[in-house]
Design a protein that fits this description.
CATH topology of the largest domain in chain A: Creatine Amidinohydrolase
Number of domains of chain A: 2
Strand content of chain A: 15-25%
Oligomer: homodimer
Helix content of chain A: 25-40%
Strand order of the largest sheet of chain A: 5-4-3-2-6-7
């Protein structure tokens, strides 16, 4: 954690001689580590299902219909992700009962389900889910089924309701998300391993950054370094934005060249054994302008006050045993810091988000996130930014693991946050 | 089109000396071509919107709520795709009225919408769509809104209904899909350009295929060749499956090595200016076994009878002016051919699918696809397969453009479909 005084970040200037080196960061995970994580998941699934079943019992339902790939992987082991879901139809959807887990699979997926979800029962489908619904609920012996109402299409809901009118559908939200935000050690290790893959990749990319190289070329180069350096896939598409483009918080790399005397923003992450990382670094191509440096120091200062507040909160919670502050409270701390500086507009997005199997999950650290104490142990991003339209943009994003029992709020992203000068 | 007798495919044996060469296929599109396609889209959007508005008027609604990224790009120009949608909240959703198109955007996206969808009106949102719904329908002056009922979450539907109880929500399906399946020339050119990128990439990969190289390494290598060879992104994740793994129609590449004396299946595609390609080739690593060759010839024969039937159907439709056969009819032709051979089980997936902005779209050529005449002009895959669990699998997939007016059914995938021997 940073130890500087809030508001006065002690940033070093790192030219080529002081650049971080790939070997500064953890090596890609070994096959043995990956096997251990897979085993940890297998061992954890009965506990996860037990917690879901406690919730089901407390809410008076005897079934839970799972529709999202993150939940499926978490509860069954089937390693679908967003890229598979598009063409999978209803395969991979699953029904949890008090005693069983049924995974729906058409003929393309029965082998994969049996292989990856050995504890689940394959429920073979030939058509859409609603055409099998009456059989499924009868086989499973359920009469009141909780359904993720933000994930099920309206038409599917209507069709399930019509297919088995005696089975109550209970609209619910966030049951499994709430479980998933509390991470076990093997999950946190994987987020850290994915972060190290990303740290290493950026460190190895630095010598390739020159004015004139395009955003798209650098994004592809960085992606390649992650995917040949331990990532099974990207956490999300790499953003590489030069100069004024960095003012778009969700811009995409284009054929625009890197500009001398301007910023260069990278927002990127890796995936390791299902778990993802997310980091942003804003580099300086040649000598920073006074404005860009002022913006950068303010963003780093906003991060510092959040880190200090997280440290204090974790210590207090461990010592006093009270709850942690809420996500919105930390968002407000960063925002107030930028507002108090007075020179720049504040960011329009949230301060941060949980991360794990999905890039964006609970807990939320935005002004509109749930007004609930942060969970523990958990991991989330801290990513304040300042965007000057058509001029420049700076965002710095680190992942932080919060663990009250250990009294720690540790940064997982280890690539230095200093003023890194490239392209000279 | 193939001219061989149905059932007796005239397959050549292509060793290294006869391999296709990357230069056999069209070069990546130039900047000028890309600019021309972008301009063609801009010019086409008013026509596309006019056709949607005709449908709206005919169905008695004054609004259409668009929720899918493919429809958004098609109708507004905003180039979101599945990777952006995950984190975009309700940004990019859009409302078409008789006179306007409103695109919802939170602060992260207003600049992007203004840049890419210049003819649309930005409707700025700070919260979820339903919290702005009453204002939006009032601004737009609509009272009966068609909503894609398979795309809207059930909870969102309920919230919109509650937020503006006087506005009728009409559940609909497939209006824009129906428009999108008929392709204009610039769309077909892009599918062909994306196919050529994929053809070239596989041709350039052939010398790298050796027993012992893993599926994952080859998949990444092939991806890299596409993305540095004209593809702005992949159409979908590359499948590379060795030997018995090829029996999984939706398998993913693993750390399994390429096996001598077995098949090696690649299913992959590129994206060029928004449009996608999709092709499958099953190669032979060293000398094919008699069984594998028998399977391969049967699959190629199934493709041939479909190609012949498509040729005949297009000629008949042009000459007689009657409708084309249905998608299920062509699926049945391929399936009957494999059944008649009698030696192998038939495939469990559909024969083919339309392709364009999405990898899978209308028309469908499966046994359960809509029982309607194929549209024209259009483009779809023809991809029969035979899968012997734990033994081997063969699929051959080509894209075909169907154009009754020109009396043509042309294969777009130009990589040879012969018996290609690699790894020797």
């Amino acid at each position: 954690m940073s130890t500087v005084s809030p508001g006065r970040p002690d940033l070093r200037r790192l030219g080529p001689a002081e650049w971080p080196h790939p070997a500064d960061f953890a090596a890609p995970p070994t096959r043995a580590e990956r096997a251990r994580w897979e085993e940890a998941d297998r061992a954890a699934r009965p506990r996860r299902l037990a917690r879901l079943r406690e919730r089901m019992a407390a809410e008076g339902v005897d079934g839970y219909l799972g529709l999202r790939w993150e939940h499926m992987r978490y509860l069954t082991g089937l390693p679908f992700d967003e890229s598979e879901v598009t063409g999978s139809g209803d395969s991979g959807k699953f029904l949890v009962t008090a005693s069983d887990v049924f995974v729906l699979a058409d003929s393309r997926y029965t082998i994969a389900v049996a292989r990856h979800a050995p504890d689940a029962r394959v429920f073979e489908i030939q058509r859409q889910m609603h055409e099998h619904w009456a059989d499924l609920v009868a086989d499973a012996g359920v009469t009141r089924v909780a359904v993720e109402a933000m994930s099920i299409p309206h038409l599917t809901w209507e069709r399930l309701a019509a297919a088995a009118p005696n089975v109550e559908l209970r609209p619910i939200e966030g049951w499994v998300e709430a479980l998933r935000q509390v991470k076990d050690a093997s999950e946190l290790e994987r987020v850290a391993a994915a972060s190290a893959v990303a740290d290493r990749a950026l460190a190895s990319l630095l010598p390739s950054i020159r004015p004139g190289v395009t955003e798209r070329e650098l994004a592809l180069d960085l992606e390649w370094r992650m995917r040949t350096g331990g990532a099974e896939r990207l956490a999300f598409d790499v953003a590489c934005l030069a100069g004024p483009e960095a003012a778009l918080p969700h811009g995409s790399p284009g054929d625009r060249p890197v500009l001398a005397g301007a910023v260069l923003l990278f927002d990127f992450g890796a995936q390791v054994e299902g778990y993802r990382s997310d980091m942003t670094r804003t580099l300086f191509v040649g000598e920073p302008s006074e404005r860009d440096l002022g913006v950068y120091e303010t963003v780093a200062g906003a991060q510092d006050v959040v880190f200090a507040a997280l440290d204090a909160a974790v210590s207090a919670a461990r010592d006093g045993g009270g709850p942690l502050p809420t996500g919105p409270a930390f968002d407000a701390i960063a925002r107030s810091f930028i507002d108090a500086d007075g020179r720049w507009p504040s960011y329009g997005h949230g301060l941060g988000h949980g991360i794990g199997l999905a890039v964006h999950e609970l807990p939320g650290l935005g002004s509109r996130s749930p007004n609930e104490p942060l969970p523990t142990p958990t991991v989330f991003s801290v990513e304040p930014g300042i965007y000057l339209e058509d001029e420049t943009g700076v965002r710095i994003e680190d992942l932080v693991v919060l663990d009250v029992e250990r009294g720690r709020a540790d940064r997982v992203t280890l690539f230095p946050r200093d003023v890194v000068i490239v392209g000279t």
